[in-house]
Amino acid sequence: MEDTSTTDDLPNENESGHISDIEQQNPTQMLTEELITLDEVSILTEKDVRTKSEQLEASIPKVELRKLFSCRKISNHTAISIHKDVLKELKDGKYKMEIAPSDLVDFGGQRSFDMTHQLFIQHKGTFVLMFDGSIGLYKPLKEYPQGIFTAASILTHWVNSILAYCGDSDDIMPIIVFAATHSDHFKERELKQKAKEYTEELTKIFSAHKHIKHIVCGRVFFINATNKNDPEIENLTDHLVEIAFQQPSWGERKPIAWVPLEMVISEMKSRDVKLITKAEMKSLNESHNDFILNDIQFEHFLNIQHSLGKLLYFAFPGINDFIVLQPPAMVNILRSFVTDECFWPKKKNLAKIHKDLHDSGSITKSDLFQLWNQMPFNEIMPDDDFKEYILQVLIHLDILIEPKRHKEGKSMSNSYLVPCIVKALAPSNFIDKEVIGDRTLCLAYEMTDLSDPSALSFKLIASALVMWPLKEEDGRPCLYYQSALMNVDERNELRILIEGQRVMVYLTNAESIHLISPDVAASIQECLTLALTNILKFYLQSSGKFTVNLDVSCYFKTKVGLICHEEVCLVSLSAVQRHKKWTCKHEVKHHRKYPMYWIFDRKKERCPLSCRGLERDALKLSPNDQHLVRLAKQIEVSVFGQFLIYLGLTTAEWEGIIYQYDRNGELGKKLMALYEWKKKRESNLQLVRLKDVSKALKKVDRQHYLCQILREDTCLMDIADSRLQEVPADEVLNRLPKHIGNCVIQLGIELGLSFNSIEETMHNHFKDMYSQIYDILRKWKQSSKIKPTIYKLMLALQCTDSGGLTFLRDEYLHP
Q1: Whether residue 685 is found in the same domain as residue 745
Q2: Residues 721 and 777 in one domain
Q3: What does the buried/exposed string (b/e) look like for 311-332 if buried means 16 or more CB atoms within 10 Å of the residue's CB?
Q4: Which helix (H) or strand (E) is 534 found in, with range?
Q5: Which phi and psi angles does 180 have, rounded to 5°?
Q6: Do 152 and 204 fall into the same domain?
Q7: How far is CA 566 from CA 186, 434, 576, in A?
Q8: Do 492 and 582 reside in the same domain of the chain?
Q9: What is the SS3 assignment for 495?
Q10: 153 and 78, same structural domain?
């Protein structure tokens, strides 16, 4: 792909008192970018321009240049100055430049660069999207081993990506043009027919696109790239010139005071200066005497230069202190970690970083900086300040995705997702009936007025990863192209999948939809909705559409639903809120109870008066150990003995449990009593059902306690941080028991250990509470079926209400 930036809007303002109209130049001398013409008194020829450039270079002391370019400091503001003759011509209005250079960025080659386009797309650019004309639009591409990517799908991806970042307005720019290569594979008659077919097919694909005015699909240039004299290449060149003249800003005026600074930028580029601090650029501006731009004018100048593609300047807090003078340098920076295997470094430690990145789809900050210490990357970023700036730019532009909750404050993440590396597709059974079936709640966000940016799915996934880790299968994280699978806990999984203009979210319980926690469902929805809202704000701001009072919710519709007849049955959230039931296309009536979990009020502590308890199908299910914990915590000691009798335990059995587990506190004794009841029924070959628990609770007038066994405390979401998704260190687990009270049984259950394993620990470390707790922590870390994260440990400690949270927070969240 070639990015040819055309003439941008130039401000019609007189910043130095000398402005004149810009004349149109010969199209053969102009392809792109701004036209600098200041009065008609004198026109500089190319020779004149070279002469002025040589005079300018001669006027710059070598020592001062070395001081600027090597030491990155400016001790003398006049170190780089404009030659007095040039200044005089500017003041007299006699300076005129006839040539406008064109910057081209070529993406042909490595497919790893497919998702880095946002770094190079300019709002006023002309984009030539090229495909192999000898293969066609719909044949699977060999470069993508998954076998589902075609030229048509890649072109659609690029069109949507370009327009997502560039936005839309009355301006015709950007313009997208299509070119097919390998014309030399066809005879002349075949070539004309093929070109006609491609034109018709592309028209069919994009004619209904909402931004069709930016897409030129009525002409496909069929070129032979091996022949520099190919007439079709000349036709393409002429067409790009015609597009350049369509710029609304063509012929507008620009400030004379910009020219000295533009010449300085040009000179620094010629001396291979790639990055410079904003402070250094301001110092250069202040050295121009009569042509000094004030702060507002200086900022405006940088923004215009950025929009033209002449430099990269991001006017966002945290990344507005540096300027990339040579945007193509970013290609080399990306090449340090976004590259195919055949280009990996030879050193084993560096090659391992690349392998880990390709296997996991993520990279740590320390590994990234290690790659940047190589030559020639270190020449571009000579110190950590420049590296830190580039890191933040890559995060800003979605090249790196930072796991965060999208709340205010600087993230302390040390690991980043790299979407452009992730090529693997989700397995064919990712959402099959056998995998999720009727055990799943569905949530959908449907975009209404924006093309989905490529990195949207990864930003949403990164937001969820702050709380829930990626599931691993066969030693590989389940991160795929535009989809991911995460472990909410041992029994619940979360899937996120992009389907065209729709973001699909699936929450699946291992056993039944009846056992999904409404608190967990609501927390997932709140997390993703907040993330989506902030993501859309960023893209709208980038395209100039966002205003402070803009409600971005109008850019997407939220739907909820269930799996029905092996399909996703969705209904608008507003409709579910108004009606108790809805009838789907299969003539099935669905109740809103479970879909409403997505917007459940997590502040409610008890059931509403309208609650009828668990459904009949739910009562047929068996309670797990965590359910017994929730139940034991609720039932008062005064009625617990009577409750056990209704369950089927005798008074003597209860008294024996009190004696045996007296050291484990009231909750420990109640938990072991419920465990003994469960073992007693199983030993008599009787099923353990929630129905039995329900009947006993009704006998003691506590029937709604059963509804509460699905509740989860999610208040720790407020401190969720990517650092908490790491595995706790052994040294921390050694010290943690000293900060925890008597909660061995409950802690073990909350961490997913079985009653048998907990009993073994209590027997092996009799009367030693600290050793018991440490053994529980050790077993959890070694045997957990899902990643044993710090966040999971904090959740378990929160449920036990026995301390340790402050210790972990200070250990991992405080600098």
Answers
A1: no
A2: yes
A3: bbbbeeeebeebbbbbbebbbe
A4: helix 518-542
A5: -100, 140
A6: yes
A7: 47, 9, 21
A8: yes
A9: strand
A10: no
Q: Which among 710, 736, 766 is the end of a domain?
A: 710
Strand order in the sheet with 483-487: 479-480, 483-487, 492-499, 502-509, 440-447, 556-564, 567-572
Cβ atoms < 10 Å from Cβ of 204: 11
Least confident range from 37-41, 118-122, 211-215, 444-448: namely 37-41
- Quick: pLDDT tens for 22-65: 233 332 222 222 323 322 222 233 333 334 334 434 444 444 44
* Backbone φ and ψ of 175, nearest 5°: -120, 135
| 140 and 156 both lie in a single domain | yes
SS3 content of the chain, % helix, strand, coil (to 5): 50, 15, 40
- DSSP secondary structure code for residue 79 in this structure: S
Query: Is 425 within a domain?
Result: no
The alpha helices in 612-743, defined as continuous H runs, are: 616-619, 625-634, 637-647, 651-660, 665-683, 690-699, 730-735
DSSP secondary-structure letter at 432? -
Query: At a CB cut-off of 8 Å and minimum separation 6, what does 516 contact?
Result: 441, 492, 507, 509, 594, 597, 710
Query: Which residues partner with 480 through β-bridges?
Result: 483
Q: Does residue 158 belong to any structural domain of this protein?
A: yes
The total number of structural domains that make up the chain: 6
CA 569 to chain centre: 27
Residues 450 and 595 in one domain: yes
* Residue at token pair 């990155």: 72
User: Reduced to 3 states, what is the DSSP secondary structure of residue 38?
Assistant: coil
Residue 114 lies in a domain: no
**Residues 6 or more apart from 472 whose CB is under 8 A from it?**
478, 787
Contact in structure between 509 and 563 (CB atoms under 8 Å) = no
Q: Is the pTM of this model over 0.85?
A: no
**Contact status, residue 324 vs residue 24, Cβ threshold 8 Å:** no
Which of 274, 306, 327 delimits the end of a domain? 327
647: domain CATH number? 1.10.533.10
Q: Which domain holds residue 297?
A: 2-101+252-327
Instruction: Label each residue of 83-129 as H, E or C.
Output: CHHHHHHHHHCCCECCCECCCCCECCCCHHHHHCHHHCCCCCEEEEE
Tokens linked to 194:
């093929």
How far is the C-alpha of 619 from the C-alpha of 615, rounded, in Å? 6
DSSP 3-state of 385: helix
CA 757 to CA 796: how far, in whole Å? Answer: 17
Asked whether residue 777 carries a pLDDT value surpassing 50, the answer given is yes
Helix pair angle (665-683, 651-660), 10° resolution: 130
Q: Which residues contact 113 (CB under 8 A, 6 or more apart)?
A: 107, 334, 338, 420
* 758 found inside a domain: yes
Peptide bond into 327 cis (omega under 30): no
State pLDDT tens for residues 243-264: 877 776 666 667 778 888 888 8
Partnered with residue 323 across adjacent β-strands are 276
Residues 640 and 672 in one domain: yes
Structure tokens belonging to residue 370:
């290690």
143: which 2 tokens? Answer: 């470069």
Task: Name the token pair of 505.
Answer: 């979210």
Hey, what are 20's tokens? 């004149």
Using 50, 70 and 90 to split pLDDT, how confident is the model at 395? confident
Q: Is 221 exposed, middle or buried (0-12, 13-18, 19+ CB in 10 A)?
A: buried
